[in-house]
Amino acid sequence: MPFFTDADEALKYLGGVFRKSNETEVGPKLASAEIDLQVYYSDPDAQVLIKMRDGKVEVFDNEENDDADVKLYMPADIGDKFWRGEYNLAVGLAKGQVKAKGPVNKILKLVPLTKPLFPIYRDLVADKDKAAA
């Protein structure tokens, strides 16, 4: 059974962690990448556009940018595991569990920057985790 019940819930948390990044020292570091990241999730189907430009991280739920610099395709459960610090994105890409279009090296350079966001994500999903237990 998938962790998220529907697309809105997946976006609340998976997009939420990017929104919260603006409240941390990580936000400006991500924003300095100057890229648009389009993420397509499955189970449930959801998509989010993350614009890391001009010193800020902007998140757009259910929005699509055909010209995004990098596009990632993955099950929402993999997104959840990544943000909990339990999933190696580079290994997922190598195994084909996560698909990518565009210069993947740009995203892989950002991955180490996301580590300080893992506790923030775990806080975001804490109530959901308690309800599921």
Automatic annotation (TrEMBL):
It comes from freshwater metagenome. Residues 27-113 form the SCP2 domain. This is Unannotated protein. It holds the Pfam family SCP2. InterPro entries: SCP2_sterol-bd_dom (IPR003033), SCP2_sterol-bd_dom_sf (IPR036527).
